[in-house]
Please model this.
Amino acid sequence: MNHQPQLNPETKSMNNNSDEPNDPLLMDHEADGIKELDNNLPRWWVWLFYLSIIFAFIYMGYYHVFHIGKLQAAEYETEWKQGEAIKVAALTKFEATLGSLTPSKDSTVLNQGAQVYTTYCSPCHRPDGGGLVGPNLTDDYWIHGSNYVDNLKTIINGVPEKGMLTWKGILKPSDIQAVASYIYTLRGTKPPNPKLPENLQQAPTGPSPFE
Ligand code: HEC
Model:
């Protein structure tokens, strides 16, 4: 039985050229009846190809031969230095105005402070501020001064030799202010099993005005 598929006469006429065995475009291989035509590449494709070669030479000259353009590492270095300068300027300004700062009572700031506290401070000072590795932040005994500005200074500079980190390189000035405002709200909250005061020699500072 012959199961040779019959080509639709219309298709056949459309493919007429390629069906010719001596078509000059026809290549000399065939797989499962599929033949390949050696057509010219489209003009737009060939131009794209040439342009990419020209581009490669320009690129190489610009970046690697004449060093006109900065490479990624150099660009990173420049931007990093700019960023560092902005950070230092912000911190210098912050430290210069420290003395006049007061704890914020704005709920957005306090929420931001609570978030910073939970992420960075609670492992050492306990989530409720009762103290663990770091001292209790809810009582009236303070090693480095009780007022808000003292707290800010301790947070900014840390007490590296005692295990309190220097946060100025890690937190933004606004975060430091927010977290210091937040811990101010923890004063007098009397959490269960607090860490005992370290600094009994110093007289208690009395209830804070924000309690
Ligand atoms: C790795 C543990 C650790 C982390 C994290 C930590 N602290 Fe401390 N903190 C301490 C220690 C320890 C002290 C006590 C330093 C001393 O004895 O002089 C301290 C002291 C303080 C003090 C001064 C307390 C006082 O009695 O004068 C404040 C305020 C404070 N920390 C706030 C923070 C804040 C805010 C954060 C988060 C941004 C934080 N700490 C993160 C360990 C830590």
Q: What stands out?
A: The first helix runs from residue 9 to 14.
